[in-house]
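Subgroup meeting minutes
Present: P.N., E.W., G.H.
Scribe: E.W.

1. P.N. recapped why we're keeping a running log of single-chain structure predictions: easier to compare across weeks, and new members can see raw inputs and outputs side by side.
2. G.H. added today's entry (271 aa).
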Amino acid sequence: MTAVTERRPAGTRRQLPGLIAHEFGADFRCFRRNIQSVFFTLVLPALFLVILASIFRSATVRVPGGSMKESEYYVPGIIAFGLIAAAFSNLTVTVVRNRESGIYKRRRATPLPATAVIAGRALVAILTAVAITALLLGIGWAAYGASIPGRTAPAFIVAVVLGAGAFCCLGFAVASFIRTVDAAQPVVQAIVLPLSFISGVFIATSELPAWLADIGKVFPVQHLVAALLAAYNPHTTGSGFRWGDLAIVAAWGAAGLIIAVRRFNWLPRGS
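Output recorded in log:
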């Protein structure tokens, strides 16, 4: 196993920003040309929002401070789902595929450090998460009259950026445990879908059995949803920052980063 802390020439370290930019451009072109990835990462969350918000358009759900229409509630919830799809699900599958197909092995022979590989792929995921957020906010505003209160907009932006970064780190960490490309998608779905159902993405936590909601509190998905919902909730007073939830998301991201750095491997593991 080759760790990301491997030694590189000093000149390479000085060129790191340019190498990251180059890697970002290459990864972004690959993502853009992969129609399947674009569909599941960008289009699927939008479809979920339209379907769920249309079905439950007249229903209301209890939120801190009062109640809100479920069509409005689903906007931050599906934004969290789309962010996780971009920063965790798609990233994990891509990293495993690149490693097992030998792409990383070939790049290892170049001056490109692992830091640039990780940072470039993470930037693609974060940019995609921001694009998903903008798309879903636009749909929520145009179709359901839902919008972010101006006073809590900074809190919403911080939650999106922090969440994207944390789930990128978790994606690299999980990818290090997956040995084959065929296993990547099932493993990712087995993690994301159950957590989405018990974390307030598809069903409000106020409507879940208490024991399921308590299990969800252990993981970062529920805390990301809570941070986004607090900034989106019209009943929220103050700035809308949920520092406790943001801290838990950041802690999970830090743990993921430590694991990713220690276990990053240039070589295929499935053979």
